[in-house]
């Protein structure tokens, strides 16, 4: 995505009082960060041209642009899962790299994880954390921790021998790797965010100020809070805006996305971040995040995917969505959301329409 497109997202975020951009800058299928510590990483992938990479100068420009508009940017270091892009540069550090049967080894193509038993793997990730700490001044850094596939590590003879020799489990391997990432973040005076699996699946020990990001289901927030940790809410059941748009898999028989159905604005608005929590537990929900993953989203369509559905989420976060003990009827939300959509369009944001123009001009006449 171009710098211009990212700036437009930041502009729209500022209009909508969304003040944190979580930048998932690395993943298996791309490495668009022009790392100085390990230039081989971006030179090996070549998904985009060199002039399209995010350089130090570009990142600093975007960070400053965001701060001028009260939008913080928090980067994510994705490891040891979703790491084909690192394994492509350093094959000796990768497991199950770009396997034909990618579903057996990971969540999506190309498959690939880092070998957690090789010290070089953790050193590269530590170096990336150091680089991001230089470039992104925010107090937080996201250390990922999602969608680890044990089959990937089990495919490595050296990892199997290591596990047998030291009598450790797959979870032990992950916990040790994540702990090394945590130490590096702490050396850079950064608090951490992790995806929920780090805690709920792998039982990682996390610092008290860590944020645990919920994405697999809203009910998992309660489990995290009962373990004593703070929650960042982004349930895919409500706030994954790329859901319901089909799949990138060319021969998938149903054509459905993994997280159907489409999250229309009414679903977005219905997300109760404090569901089944006591008033005291609800204080541990520190914020929420609307996600739009990029498998089928680029700068040509990003604004349509985001707005005004993310605007509905903003109202939930800032003023709540309840009238008494009930979720507020969307009937009375729609007129002002329609109005806000036209205000964004007037500011040059390509927000999608929610109703035909006649319905917009005749509020409540298109209700049941």
Q: Give the number of DSSP strands.
A: 13
Strand order of the largest sheet: 7-8-9-10-11
What's the architecture, going by CATH? Alpha-Beta Barrel
What is the N-to-C order of secondary-structure elements (H for helix, E for strand)? HEEEHHEHEHEHEHHHEHEHEHHEHHEEHH
Give the CA-based shape.
globular
Sheet with the most strands? 5 strands, parallel
Helix content: 25-40%
Give start-end ranges of low-pLDDT stretches.
none
CATH topology: TIM Barrel
Distance N to C terminus: 41 Å
Mean pLDDT: 96
The number of distinct structural domains comes to: 1
Q: How many helical stretches?
A: 17
Class by SSE composition: alpha/beta
Pfam family, one: Glyco_hydro_20
Domain Glycoside hydrolase family 20 catalytic: 2-320
InterPro entries: Beta_hexosaminidase_sua/sub, GH, Glyco_hydro_20_cat
Protein name: beta-N-acetylhexosaminidase
């Amino acid at each position: 995505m171009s710098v211009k497109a990212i700036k437009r997202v930041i502009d729209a975020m500022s209009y909508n009082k969304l003040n944190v951009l979580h930048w998932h800058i690395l993943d298996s299928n791309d490495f668009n960060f022009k790392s100085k510590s390990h230039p081989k990483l971006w030179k090996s992938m070549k998904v985009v041209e060199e002039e399209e990479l995010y350089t130090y100068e570009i990142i600093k420009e975007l960070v400053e642009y965001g701060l001028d508009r009260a939008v913080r940017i928090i980067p994510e270091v994705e490891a040891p899962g979703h790491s084909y892009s690192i394994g492509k540069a350093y094959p000796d550090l990768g497991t199950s790299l770009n396997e034909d049967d990618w579903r057996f080894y990971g969540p999506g193509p190309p498959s690939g994880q880092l070998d957690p038993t090789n010290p070089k793997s953790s050193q590269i990730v530590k170096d990336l954390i150091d680089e991001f700490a230089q470039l992104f001044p925010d107090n937080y850094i996201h250390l990922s921790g999602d969608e680890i596939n044990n089959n990937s590590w089990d495919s490595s003879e050296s990892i199997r021998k290591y596990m047998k020799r030291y009598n450790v489990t797959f979870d032990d391997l992950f916990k040790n790797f994540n702990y090394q990432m945590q130490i590096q973040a702490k050396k850079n005076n950064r608090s951490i965010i992790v995806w929920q699996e780090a805690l709920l699946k792998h039982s990682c020990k996390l610092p008290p100020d860590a944020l645990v990001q919920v994405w697999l289901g809203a009910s998992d927030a309660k489990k995290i809070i009962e373990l004593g940790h703070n929650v960042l809410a982004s349930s895919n059941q409500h706030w994954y805006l790329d859901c319901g748009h089909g799949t990138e898999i060319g021969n998938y028989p149903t054509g459905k996305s993994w997280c159907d159905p489409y999250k229309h604005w009414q679903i977005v608005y219905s997300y109760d971040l404090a569901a089944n929590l006591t008033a005291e537990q609800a204080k541990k929900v520190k914020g929420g995040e609307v996600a739009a993953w990029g498998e089928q989203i680029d700068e040509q369509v990003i604004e349509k995917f985001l707005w005004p559905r993310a605007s509905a989420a903003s109202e939930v976060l800032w003023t709540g969505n309840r009238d008494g003990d009930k979720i507020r009827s969307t009937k009375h939300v729609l007129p002002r959301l329609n109005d806000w959509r036209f205000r964004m369009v007037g500011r040059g944001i390509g927000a999608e329409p929610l109703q035909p123009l006649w319905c917009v001009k005749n509020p409540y006449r298109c209700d049941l």
